[in-house]
Structures are given as structure tokens and as C-alpha cells.
TrEMBL record:
UniProt keyword annotation of Membrane present: yes
Topological relation to the membrane, as annotated: Multi-pass membrane protein
Entry keyword annotation includes Magnesium: no
PROSITE patterns registered for this protein in UniProt: MFS, SUGAR_TRANSPORT_1
Main localization category: membrane
Protein name from the UniProt record: MFS transporter
Source species, domain of life: Bacteria
Residue ranges occupied by any Major facilitator superfamily (MFS) profile domain in the UniProt entry: 1-386
Keywords per UniProt: Membrane, Transmembrane, Transmembrane helix
Amino acid sequence: MYSGNITKLYLIKIAKWFMLTMPILMLFFQDLGFTVEESFQLKAIYSIAIVIFEIPSGYAADVLGRKRTLIIGSILGTLGFAIYSFTSGFYAFLAAELILGVGQSFISGADSAMLYDSLKADGRENSYMKYEGRNFSVGNFSEAIAGFMGGALAEISLRTPFFFQTGIAFLAVPAAFMLVEPQLYTRTQKATWKDIWNVVKYAMVENKSLRYNIIYSSIIGSATLSMAWVYPLYLKEIGFREIHIGSASTVLNLVVGMTTLFAYKIERKLRPKSTVWGTTLVITGAFIAAGLLHSLYVLPVLMFFYFSRGIATPVLKDYINRITSSDIRATVLSLRSLIIRANFSILAPLFGYMTDRLSLSQAFVIIGVIFMVLTGSSIFLFLRSLEKDRK
């Protein structure tokens, strides 16, 4: 009955991930005269907006319905790129990033919760990891194609990709309107901030397994998000043109897209402990390796990084979903996204500051060490809780 939601969620994922602007955004900022620090301040504003609205929007998805929040997020996403298309200047872009951040917060968590509950309503929740992997693959294949196209459009002008991006973002709006809400539970009272706090308290204080899952998954998510924004600057510095950076983005996202299709099989074969350790070492070590190499040899490092990202993202989300009830699932997934964005809102300006005052290579090494320390401080507790949940 709810299988049609899967196709519509794929379309929303495409509209959200077909990012023509991503491989050239930092170059666009530089072309307008922004420093690296100012560029990452704008992306930090985007993350701060998500931090502020992530939990309320996730709870809204649990109370008002996933469909309504996905509609709101899709409309705001279109508006944000429209502002980028027709304005210039730091403060205009700041407004665009705020709107895009709020829009992202309304989609984040609600899309995964809609997918899981649609499968559960049809008695297929055990297939979630497979479909989440496919959904993630759809996004990455979209990002892969968009990488090359964005680089090619940037050869015309660095603003051209933004015009096309606005139209692509709009595709999510009709798709969100056509979703069918699974009725798995009923709210009998009005939502309050106390209810939101109770969910957060349960996830981060009372339920230890859920807490360690969220913390570890958020750190890995922060690392993969950071790499997605910093590697175009790296490739530019070693001599890549815009179209070459776009092509590299295409290849890397094809790698992660193909990997997510089989992530559930890889996790079953390697077992959880080996999967977690392997992806952690690659994802954190890639930053340090890139900083030390500073040459074309970084390309295989990025390939391994994106391969590990393709495994880690759907697998870690599945671990969280397995121990989370349906009535708070969107809120919990939004809490994970909130922590990812909170980390990024601190680390992104720090990375820009270090790049402007030290060097890009040194910034890569330092940020890699930071991620290694953060994962090292949480991985043992996470693995212990994972083993306990599987007994």
C-alpha cells in the first residue's frame, strides 16, 4: 500500500542531492572575493540554522506528520537557491543559507522516518537497510551526475549552476505533496517543548545504547560532511580546473553510490565490529593522508574515503532505527543530524581560519587529528552497546 512512497522519496532525494553547486560553491565564494574563513562562516550559518530547527522539525514530523514537514522543507530549499541565483553579497548569501538550513532540517530525519514507517506499515521493516542504502545511492548517483554537470556549467559562469539548481530543487515540492502518510500511531495530546525535551533526554541520557549510537554516528557524519566541502579547495590548489573538480566529484559519488547498494551485504560479511573499525580508520586517516601528500596521490585516498562513507552512512542509521520506536524516530534521527551540524558549525570556521593563517595541508592534518580523537573517545562505548543490543 505504501510502496509508492519509496519512489517519491527517491525523487525528493534526487532534488536534494543533485547539487550542481556543491563542487564549485567555494570557488564561487573565492571569485566574489570572500576569504576561505568567510566562505566557511556561511556554511557554518547553514549548519547553525539546522542546529536550531533540527529537533523542533523532527518532532514536528512525529506530531504533524512526515509529509507536511517534507513539503515545508522542499519549498524552503527552492527559495534558498532562488536567492543565490539573483543576489550577491555576504548578507544576501547568509539569508539564503539560513533558509536552506531550515529547509534541510525539515527534510532531515523525516525522510528516513517516512521510509522506515512505510516499510513497517507493509510488514517489510527488516528491509530498511537495503532500501536506505538504495535511497542513499540514488542521492549519490544524483550528486555524481551533478558534479560533472555543475563543473561544465561553471565553465560558462560560476553563477550559472545556481539557476539550474533552483529548478531541480523545485522537483521535491510535487513529490512531497504526493506522499501517503503511514498511520502507525496516533497522538492524543498537543505537542509541547517538554515533549521534545523528554525525547532528547530519553535518547541522550536514559537509553545508553541509543546515546552511544547517536554520538558515534554523529562524529562520523561530521567527518564525511567536512570532507565533502573541503576537498574541492584541495583539488583547486593542486591545479584542477572547475570541470575537472566536477568530474572528480562525479567519480567519488559514483563510488559511494555503488557502495551503498551493497552496504548491508558488506556489513553482514565483515560483521559490525570489523565494519565499524575499518570505516573509522579510513574516514579519519584520509584527512591526515591528504594533508601529508598534497599531490595527485590524494585521489586514491579520496576513493577509499568515499567507499567507507558509502558503508558507514546506511549501516549506522540502521543501528539507530533498530533501537528506536516509531513515535520518536524522526526526532531521534534529527538529533543525530543536529549533532553533526553543530560539530560542523564549529569545525568549518576553524578549518577556514587555519587555512588562511597556516596552509590547506596543515588544516587537513589538524582536522584529521581532531576527528581521530573524537572517534577514539566514543568508539569503544559504541561497540559495547552494539554488542549488547545484538544479544
